[in-house]
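Quick illustration for those who missed Monday's session on complexes.
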Amino acid sequence: MKCPYCNEDNTKVIDSRPAEENSAIRRRRQCESCGKRFTTYEKLETMPLMVVKKDGTREVYDRAKIEAGILRSCHKRPVSPQQIDALIDEVESSVFNLEEKEVATSVIGELVMAGLKELDEVAYVRFASVYREFKDVNTFIDEIGKLLKK
Ligand SMILES: [Zn+2]
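Prediction with zinc ion bound:
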């Protein structure tokens, strides 16, 4: 970042804070050559992540949809909203860390299932049954069998 006063390319950030309701970052910078301070705003690049559904159609990634599915699975189960939030955060960061422009619903579904399995097994089976749409009945029966054995 060039200093607007002396044009030297030698500045350091002395303070960063969110601005414009977190859609930008305001940075205070100081030029290490002339010592003057100035402020920059960086807009966060919003590149929508596309989700590819089983039928090949695409839609923009929507956290609320994942949340709705998880909430349904956790109905009357001892899972707190904080735990659900944390689970979605974890799923999101795994998905975004793939750095792909598109991600299959199956990838998200598997991540959610892996997380739910740790939180609550009933919620996990509920989610898995909806997610897999009972197409894979044997897997479903296997899962329930495993839970009953415990
Ligand atoms: Zn300067």
